[in-house]
User: Fold this.
Amino acid sequence: MRRKTFDALLSTGGLLIAALLIIAGGLLTWAHSFVDNQVRTQLVAQKIVFPAAGSASISDPAIKPYLTQYAGQTMTNGAQAEAWADHYIAVHLQKIGGGQTYAQLSAKAQADPTNTTLANTVNTVFKGETLRGLLLNAYAFWKMAQIAMIAAIIAFIGAGVFLLLSALGFLHLRRVD
Assistant:
């Protein structure tokens, strides 16, 4: 194969790869924007507001280091949802359930159906675990959106590198006999 043909093939291939990376970057950027907006919209609709700085509800050492940075803010992103779920709801559920999980409490309630106090505790823990799970799902989708944006940036950088290499290849092609 002649050098000129080889340069033309590689340069054209580089342009095709750059085009694919630009398309991938665009789709990844769209995915980030869509998921991030969905998570924000759903979280804002819940109107969850973090307790004010210095309030008694975040003074617990298991809560304070994680929620102080969000004090007084309305929940709008996955990082906030994770902090609320793992360091506010989970801590309170541990106290309400005496360190037992919903499954353990539910089994006890089934064994003693006349214990209304235990039934109420099971009901409260169930609702708390449900909300916690929903918030952690919001966090997971938000995190996927963040990863999509990182991947988009990498795709755009890769496209730039391939465009540069292709341009250099076409320049070299003009100089080769």
User: Anything to note?
Assistant: The chain has a mean pLDDT of 94. The helical segments are 3-46, 64-67, 78-96, 102-111, 116-175. DSSP finds five helices and no strands in the chain.
